[in-house]
């Protein structure tokens, strides 16, 4: 007798169920996707005991006639595809024809369906994959599927289910993804008679996010959009101040289907760059539309994984679109959360302060100040007079601010490092653009004081700001170092007495592999016998007195991360250098030093976070201040 034989149909269905039905959430996903494919616009899911004992999915879709309802429970019975070429242009969520027979093989199922509004419906009762009853009943147009006693005939699977709360959370996650995929449909989730969430089905993605994640998350979302010849992109992403500890809050929707894609998730994170702290991830929904021929969804039974024909081009479009959305925002976190700003008339004892800059005078002073860069022989006294005049002409300080002592009389030079001649002297031919950019993104700030030599207190016309001076200076240095490492023409500082670096054997091997990249940056580093290297010259912008420590840190980074891309190494090195070079906490700054720091920060591409993603500013609005002091109720 032969050893190979064809499996019994019921056994084959139970094996297939292991691929499709893992837990109640798997059943909900398959049944809701069928409802969406049936053109329903209202879908309700009811659970009892986390869906282990009872699941009901109701919709108002097209329904089925009796013959189709019976055939639907046979393996590979589907209305979605008819021929081989249909696999290459799938536009429905389901198409395999495995869901209903797999569910019916491990549970007790009732299906009630009506194809039209005559209320004449069909009721099927199936248990363990066997059709027990077929009868007429009444129902309005649509379908109800009830699943009871999941895994009643496969106890080994039943014991691996988690607690009720865990199973409910899994179902809620699936329902949330489906709702985000189809904002024009209304979804309702009920557990043990309690409504967990309901979406309006008005086609607005922001309303779905509000229903699933809450008002606070919805208020921190930004619009994303973009397109090219192959892809259309839309969606919402969170501001950098709103993050989570894992990337599960990123939803990727492809032609109305929620999918998982590491490459697409990474392209979103690359777009945020240094706006996010390490180990933190944004909340977002990215919806993509493309020709179905460019995507293969027939990769995995759960249909969560897909193959893309132009994945690199899509990732580039997503990265550019997210970056564009972020660059349009003033990314300053609110100290008291996202408060609703109300227009409140000031009380009689309140006097309104005006912070409208006198632009003609301001730019005249800045034009004179730019001579500092052109003529290094400018007297220190003249420079300080111009600084003081700039501060005085930019704002009308309130009467309680102590006057700034005359820097000419003090004869003390500012100690704040002039970052590589403040990166570049301002181009006065683009004043209009600079004013527009400043007004739209970077707040116009007047420094007032310091707290513990660490935080700068500054005011603007919309409240006041606390500024982390180390984070701010670190951001300035990071952008300077990052851009300088990408330049082709570099000036070097030769050393009269070369510096030596002693390494371990593994460190020396790592460093040898990257000598060419370091030399491209202008760092003249060469072997000096054994495990010792010698620095003969370094770039003119290289942080002084930290050369050896910085190179050791770069070696340790390479040791921890293995072989890395040159662009990644450039970014990591710029972060290390900026952290070393920036002013530290507990460093007291004079008023003109704070002004200089704000000026340099305003010229950064991203002036809102340090290179490691920590916020630079915290904003207290005028309304929040008035509310704290009970001036408004």
Walk me through the structure.
The chain is an alpha+beta fold. The chain is 36% helix and 22% strand. It has an eight-stranded mixed beta sheet. A hairpin with a 5-residue loop joins strand 3 (108-114) and strand 4 (120-127). Helix 9 packs parallel to helix 10 (311-327), helix 16 packs across helix 21 (591-602) and helix 19 packs antiparallel against helix 20 (566-581).
Structural topology:
Blueprint: H1 9-20, H2 24-37, E1 42-48, E2 54-59, H3 66-71, H4 99-105, E3 108-114, E4 120-127, E5 130-138, E6 142-148, H5 155-158, H6 164-181, E7 186-191, E8 194-198, H7 205-213, H8 215-218, E9 221-227, E10 231-238, E11 243-244, E12 250-254, E13 257-259, H9 262-272, E14 281-282, E15 284-290, E16 295-296, E17 307-308, H10 311-327, H11 359-369, H12 371-374, H13 380-394, H14 407-410, H15 431-440, E18 446-451, E19 455-460, E20 463-468, H16 469-485, E21 492-502, H17 505-513, H18 515-520, E22 524-527, E23 532-539, H19 547-561, H20 566-581, H21 591-602, E24 617-621, H22 622-628
Parallel strand pairs: 1-7, 12-15
Antiparallel strand pairs: 1-2, 2-6, 3-4, 3-6, 4-5, 7-8, 9-10, 10-15, 11-14, 12-13, 16-17, 18-19, 19-20, 20-24, 21-23, 22-23
Helix pairs in contact: 1-4, 2-6, 9-10, 11-13, 16-20, 16-21, 17-19, 19-20
């Amino acid at each position: 007798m032969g050893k190979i034989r064809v499996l019994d149909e019921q056994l084959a269905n139970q094996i297939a169920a292991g691929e499709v039905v893992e837990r109640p959430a798997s059943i909900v996903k398959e049944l809701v996707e069928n409802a969406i494919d049936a053109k329903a616009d209202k879908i309700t899911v009811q659970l009892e005991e986390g869906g282990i004992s009872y699941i009901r999915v109701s919709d108002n879709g097209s329904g089925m006639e009796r013959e189709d309802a019976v055939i639907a429970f046979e393996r590979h019975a589907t209305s979605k595809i008819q021929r081989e070429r249909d696999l290459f242009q799938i536009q429905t969520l389901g198409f395999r024809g495995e869901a209903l027979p797999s569910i019916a093989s491990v549970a007790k199922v009732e299906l009630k369906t009506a194809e039209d509004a005559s209320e004449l419906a069909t009721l099927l009762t199936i248990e363990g994959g066997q059709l027990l009853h077929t009868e007429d009943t009444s129902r309005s147009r649509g379908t109800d599927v009830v699943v009871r006693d999941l895994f009643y005939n496969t106890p080994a699977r039943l014991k691996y289910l988690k607690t009720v709360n865990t199973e409910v959370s899994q179902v809620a996650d699936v329902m949330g993804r489906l709702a985000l995929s189809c904002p024009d449909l209304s979804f309702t989730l009920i557990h043990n008679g309690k409504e967990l969430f309901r979406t309006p089905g008005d086609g607005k993605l922001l309303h779905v996010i509000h229903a699933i994640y809450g008002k606070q998350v919805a208020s921190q979302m930004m619009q994303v959009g973009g397109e090219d010849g192959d892809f259309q992109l839309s969606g919402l992403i969170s501001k950098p101040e709103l993050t989570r500890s894992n990337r599960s809050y990123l939803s990727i929707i492809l032609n109305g289907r929620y999918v998982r894609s590491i490459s697409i998730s990474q392209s979103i994170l690359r777009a945020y760059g240094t706006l996010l702290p390490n180990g933190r991830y944004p909340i977002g929904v990215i919806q993509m539309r493309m020709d179905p021929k460019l995507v293969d969804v027939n990769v995995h039974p759960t249909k969560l994984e897909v193959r893309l024909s132009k994945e690199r081009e899509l990732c580039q479009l997503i990265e550019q679109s997210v970056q564009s959305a972020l660059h349009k925002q003033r990314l300053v976190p609110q100290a008291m959360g996202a408060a609703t700003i109300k227009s409140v008339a000031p009380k009689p004892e309140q006097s309104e302060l005006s912070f409208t800059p006198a632009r003609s005078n301001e730019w005249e002073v800045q034009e004179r100040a730019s001579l500092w860069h052109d003529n290094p022989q400018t007297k220190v006294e003249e420079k300080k007079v111009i600084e003081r005049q700039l501060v005085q002409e930019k704002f009308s300080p309130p009467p309680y601010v102590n006057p700034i002592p005359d820097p000419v009389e003090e004869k003390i030079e500012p100690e704040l490092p002039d970052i590589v001649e403040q990166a570049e002297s301002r181009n006065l031919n683009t004043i209009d653009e600079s004013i527009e950019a400043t007004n739209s993104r970077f707040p116009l700030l007047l420094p007032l004081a310091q707290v513990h030599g660490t935080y700068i207190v500054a005011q603007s016309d919309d409240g006041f700001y606390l500024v982390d001076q180390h984070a701010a200076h670190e951001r300035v240095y990071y952008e300077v170092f990052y851009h300088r490492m990408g330049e082709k023409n570099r000036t070097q500082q030769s050393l009269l007495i070369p510096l030596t670096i002693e390494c371990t054997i593994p460190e020396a091997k790592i460093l040898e592999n990257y000598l060419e990249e370091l030399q491209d940056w202008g760092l003249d580093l060469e072997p000096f016998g054994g495990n010792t290297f010698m620095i003969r010259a370094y770039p003119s912008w290289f942080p002084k007195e930290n050369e050896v420590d910085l190179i050791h840190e770069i070696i340790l980074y390479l040791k921890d991360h293995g072989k890395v891309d040159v662009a990644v190494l450039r970014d990591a090195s710029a972060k290390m250098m900026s952290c070393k070079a920036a002013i530290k906490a507990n460093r007291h700054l004079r008023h003109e030093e704070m002004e200089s720091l704000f000026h340099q920060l305003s010229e950064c591409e991203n002036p809102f976070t340090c290179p490691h993603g920590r916020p630079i500013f915290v904003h207290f609005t005028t309304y929040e201040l008035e509310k704290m002091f009970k001036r408004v109720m």
